Amino acid sequence: MDEIFEQGLSRVDANYTALTPISFLERTALAHPCRVAVIYGDTSRTWAEVYRRSLKLASALRKLGVCQGDTVAALLPNTPAMLELHFAVPMLGAVLNAQNTRLDARTITFMLNHGRAKVFFTDREFSERAQEAVAGCDHKPIIVDVDDPYAEGGELIGSMTYEELLATGDDDFTWERPSNEWQAIALNYTSGTTGNPKGVVYHHRGAHLNSLSNIIGLGLPAGAVYLWTLPMFHCNGWCYPWAVTAVAGTHVCIRQPQPAVVFDAIAKHEVTHFCAAPVVLNMLINAPKEQKQAFEHTVTVATGGAAPPAATIAAMEAMGLNVVHLYGLTETYGPSMICEFQDDWHELDIKQKATKMARQGITMLAMSDMMVADPISMEPVPQDGESIGELFLRGNNVMKGYLCNEKETTKAFADGWFHTGDLGVWHPDGYVEIKDRSKDIIISGGENISTLEVESVLYDHPGVLEAAVVAAPDTHWGEVPCAFVTPRHDYGELTEEEIVRHCRANLAGFKVPKRIVFMEELPKTSTGKLQKHVLRQQFVA
Ligand code: ADP
């Protein structure tokens, strides 16, 4: 049979261009040159200025020898420089490696070596670690200091400052679209909670599509005012540097998401949207009264990166904030699933509503497919809300793969799906609910115990500020659940018996923690994830 739709209808330059999020900046600078693009302390710049500066920076980097396929690393807080790097580096076909600012020098050295960084942007606050990290490098990158007036202490350690470098760029520099949208745009290392960090590589196409998907998921309107509480080093700030730019919004930058700073910024700049891990939401909920502020305008917060306890969602909503729950991984450019809000949930009481919203939901627009399945047979589990399987994803916002790590890449993509390593159930309404990471689930006497479920019950107790549940070895049961709890300061005395009583009333007996350990602070990664391996170590010791 003649395929008429394949005849004389080819892909040509006129009807096919490589997708890239850099085009968002070009368009926004044309559409809204005078609108405020970025606010940081006393500095404010328009879209025309940010575009011009990004082009100049790209030109300056080219003069330093940065070419297509080179890596540019950045150890920076959420400053305007970090935002500009998200555009300038890919304009050259180079790859941005935004690094977690809380990592130790040894890990930074590992990333600089592994990613073969040519240029390394740092901030005075991190100068000591940056210097130590570079000292250990096989090839020394050129160091550029972002001499931020709001940084405290530290030294300038580079061969030039960011503004000095920028000044060397040409004003008439033009950028070229990548010839291939599969070209790498970013390199993001996983936190290494499961071993050596793996270098996750993103391409222009995925970054473009995930940005658009995030605009729709969060409901970002034209001109949104977005507060940078989420680190831009985490999955490139879930692609929001590009997404907010696409809607010609305003980026409000802050160095640290301290509650007072966050509340002030929301009020002062009429912030409409921000993203934060549940741990940051808890900080806002538990902030001292004098730091909290009520807002007359609507504020939407996307949370994810870890499971938000229903109690946290309920408390945020009670403060008048709209909560959107997203799920994702570094490997999926950040958010890839969303708990789409159903109209009839408005009628539920806040606790029931929050419980529905705490589920991870369904795919976001850019993700093509998902399933919860048995990881051995790859057979989907029944959608009964009970059978546990691994979550598998497939789509255009799944990474290119792990840099120079074919073995792990092949493993992650086996059977035509991306293996998330997260275990969950599939509900009859098609929503997925994550129960645990595969390495965290507790198997006690052959029964699975979801640590997230036990934590959620602990969070419902008014005396609990934070909780983490891990497996403790047990000669009889194999493993038993054990809880680490940070009590709320204003609660009075919280006892082990009281917590156990609360758990007994709300959980099956075998899920009740067999030991409760009180802790002033739970160990967390810089992105707010509980470091359960640190807690488990206590039992090994
Ligand atoms: P790392 O794997 O390096 O710790 P990631 O940011 O890639 O860092 O972590 C992704 C993991 O975080 C997911 O596999 C999942 O376990 C957890 N996660 C992310 N978002 C959610 C969410 N909304 N609910 C539950 N867990 C989540």
From TrEMBL:
<keyword id="KW-0276">Fatty acid metabolism</keyword>
<keyword id="KW-0436">Ligase</keyword>
<dbReference type="InterPro" id="IPR000873">
    <property type="entry name" value="AMP-dep_synth/lig_dom"/>
</dbReference>
<dbReference type="Pfam" id="PF00501">
    <property type="entry name" value="AMP-binding"/>
</dbReference>
<comment type="similarity">
    <text>Belongs to the ATP-dependent AMP-binding enzyme family.</text>
</comment>
<feature type="domain" description="AMP-dependent synthetase/ligase">
    <location>
        <begin position="25"/>
        <end position="403"/>
    </location>
</feature>
<keyword id="KW-0443">Lipid metabolism</keyword>
<dbReference type="GO" id="GO:0016874">
    <property type="term" value="F:ligase activity"/>
</dbReference>
<dbReference type="Pfam" id="PF13193">
    <property type="entry name" value="AMP-binding_C"/>
</dbReference>
<dbReference type="InterPro" id="IPR045851">
    <property type="entry name" value="AMP-bd_C_sf"/>
</dbReference>
<protein>
    <submittedName>
        <fullName>Acyl-CoA synthetase</fullName>
    </submittedName>
</protein>
<feature type="domain" description="AMP-binding enzyme C-terminal">
    <location>
        <begin position="453"/>
        <end position="529"/>
    </location>
</feature>
<dbReference type="InterPro" id="IPR042099">
    <property type="entry name" value="ANL_N_sf"/>
</dbReference>
<dbReference type="InterPro" id="IPR020845">
    <property type="entry name" value="AMP-binding_CS"/>
</dbReference>
<dbReference type="InterPro" id="IPR025110">
    <property type="entry name" value="AMP-bd_C"/>
</dbReference>
<dbReference type="GO" id="GO:0006631">
    <property type="term" value="P:fatty acid metabolic process"/>
</dbReference>
